[in-house]
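S., here's the first fold you wanted:
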Amino acid sequence: MSGLTEGIAAAIAYIEAHLADEVDMSEAAKRACLSGFYFQRVFHALCGQTVGEYVRSRRLTLAAQELSAHRSKVIDVALKYGYDSPDSFARAFTRFHGVSPSAAREPGARLNAVAPLAIKLTLEGGIMLEYRIAEKAQFTVTGVSRRFNAETSYQEIPKYWDEHMRGPLKDAVMGVFGICLDMEGSDFDYLIADPYQPWRDVPGGCQTRVIPAATWAVFPCVLGTLQATNTRIFSEWLPASQVWRLADAISVEFYKGPLPEERDQTPCEIWIPVARA
């Protein structure tokens, strides 16, 4: 088992030990030896669900066990597993189990359960994933940004692109880059950007950012496979690599050339900062 998967296993053990109190995501990321942003990405790629989804599923599993086995009070179980009110707990519980918390206390109630995750080595991979290692000097970009949460970023960032491409700044910022940076826990800024041109004024509503010099693992793909390629980087390439590790809390999408008629075939690259393990 690689250091990356060992780290995720340690993070899962921490989460399991704190389901009945506060799960500190920064502490879980620390156990995995990753930034909060990359912890979310690696966890999702390896485990097939977000950290938040896993925590909610496990808490609702344990809550159902307590209600059915011990006839505990609904309000006590709700508070124990992080819900501010019986109503919010009841809504989440009913969505997950298909019955209300009070019904779960009845003999013979049918309930759902999610077992604790265990990271195991399996015979996967074997499919080519092209990449190259590239040294890139510091460069500056100009663009627009929005704050996102790693839990929902796969769904929300494409919407942000669509909104930008219909908005007033679409001609000022064409969208050569998509950059994740300023990561704090599960939150990060996503910048739609172009190379900075010092002879031009920065358009209103835009900002300039300096991307530091780095060694990058560069993965070519097309727009239609960008998210799938990103998942494979964290579920296959990084866990299998004995030479490279993540070096910084930043990632870059590079869009090469104008959009073709088939938008999903737009050539692009994913850049991940790496250092020797």
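And the second, which I think is the more interesting of the pair:
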Amino acid sequence: MGRKIRRVIFIIALVVFIGAVGYIGYTYYGYSRDAKFYREAVSEYVTINKPEPAQSSEAENKEEVSGKKELPIEVDFEALRAVNPDIMGWIYCPDTVINYPILKAEDNDKYLRHNYLGEYITAGSIFVECANSDGFADSNTIVYGHNMHDGSMFACLSKWFEQDFYEAHPVMYILTPEKNYELQLFSAYTTKAGSDAYYAILTPCKEMNDYLERAVERSKIQTRVELPEDGHYVLLSTCAYLFENARSVVHGVLVPIE
């Protein structure tokens, strides 16, 4: 009887082991598939304008003379919106994985686990809070993205908690069909889902001023970014795993690029 029990236990353990290996393999296959999808999206719709090191000083001099800042990337929004009119913009940060389309739907579930083609993927999409207006027209716009275990999507937001990393990456870029922006980052910290950081404030008001003061007070980094009262701000948000319902958030102010 003891031998039979040991055999049953062995078989159960073997089945559990095989199932665990299969689950891990399927998970990493999903990560690989999702990463490939977004690499192909970048390849198809994005042109990188990053100058070669020997050309960078020349490019900076041209910007100073012309008064215009060269965009690090260009996005074919006409082609993207022909595929999906929910495309609202594109977010990019040099020397990081952040290089994704931004979408907006009538609810916050649609792009939680779907890409801009409507296909189910674990990574989902970078998407705007449905309560916000289109075109980053509100005083504060909330943008969500998953914290993927392979480091993709918004997994790297917590890196901005370190002063050295912030100083090496003080801005992101948000491009839209109507206008292009630098997103000048000024605050980064951990909060809880549903906290007062998640206010989709539509117009300038005292509550917005108080909101900005709290963001600066909570920040793990020190910055010198100017925060105009009539500015347009963006909150980037992703899951964190420090406590239940923890979130990593980064605040930035939109500065139009001529």
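Why I say that: The helical segments are 2-45, 53-66, 77-83, 163-168, 206-218. The beta strands are 46-48, 73-75, 87-92, 99-103, 126-128, 140-144, 171-175, 180-192, 233-239, 246-256.

Talk tomorrow,
H.
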